[in-house]
Amino acid sequence: QVQLVESGGGLVQAGDSLRLSCAASGPTFRGYDVRWFRQAPGKEREFVASITWIDGRTYYADSVEGRSTIWRDNTKNTVYLQMNSLKPEDTAVYYCAPGFGPENRPSSWGQGTQVTVSS
User: Fold this and answer.
1) What's the confidence (pLDDT) of residue 16?
2) Could you report the per-residue pLDDT of 49-86, keeping only the tens digit for each?
3) Could you give the strand order of the β-sheet that contains 78-83, starting from the edge strand earlier in sequence?
4) CA-CA distance, 12 to 106, in Å (whole number)?
5) pLDDT at 15
6) Which of 25, 49, 100, 111 could be joined to 3 by an S-S link, Cβ 3.0–4.6 Å?
7) Within a 13 Å sphere around the CA of 1, how many CA atoms are in the beta-carbon half?
8) Mean per-residue pLDDT for 73-101?
9) Around 12, how many Cα atoms within 13 Å sit in the side-chain half-sphere?
10) What was the pLDDT predicted at 33?
11) First to last CA, the chain
12) If you average pLDDT over residues 1-24, what whole number do you get?
């Protein structure tokens, strides 16, 4: 199983942008679809966005669609999530994982990257 490491989080103000990175550690993620989830304090982990390997098809949660872009650079074994017009409700720990869409979630997760949006 490919190992993915998240980075790029930080403390920003409402309206700002952030670019999160998900890098493959060890075997590359050639052939893997990749997705982002997030978990806010006291809330369940929720799906954010995903991208396929074979054709770069994307899928976004309603809560981020229009404000976010997911893409991948296979030469760098990295998937990116650009988030614009950030809102305080985007505050969460963001995780990436193999797969596409919100179903069939992995049983284990990485450390994630913290995104905090101040109002």
Assistant:
1) 98
2) 999 999 999 999 999 999 999 999 988 999 999 999 99
3) 3-7, 18-25, 78-83, 68-73
4) 29
5) 98
6) 25
7) 11
8) 96
9) 22
10) 94
11) 39
12) 95
Only one residue has tokens 């990485």, namely 110
Give the model's pLDDT for residue 6.
Answer: 97
Residue 23 structure tokens: 């890098």
Please spell the DSSP secondary structure of 68-94, one letter per residue.
EEEEEETTTTEEEEEE-S--GGG-EEE
Per residue, the 3-state secondary structure of 1-65, as one string, reads CCEEEEECCEEEECCCCEEEEEEEECCCCCCCCEEEEEECCCCCCEEEEEECCCCCCEEECCCCC
Amino acid at 33: D
- Residues 119, 15 contacting (CB under 8 angstroms): no
Q: Give the mean model confidence (pLDDT) for residues 90-110.
A: 95
In terms of Cα–Cα distance, which of 3, 16, 14, 20 is closest to 114?
20
CB atoms closer than 10 angstroms to residue 46: 14
Given the DSSP bridges, would you call strands 113-118 and 34-39 parallel, antiparallel or unpaired?
unpaired
Q: Determine the pLDDT at residue 20.
A: 98
Are 35 and 105 a contacting pair, CB within 8 Å?
no
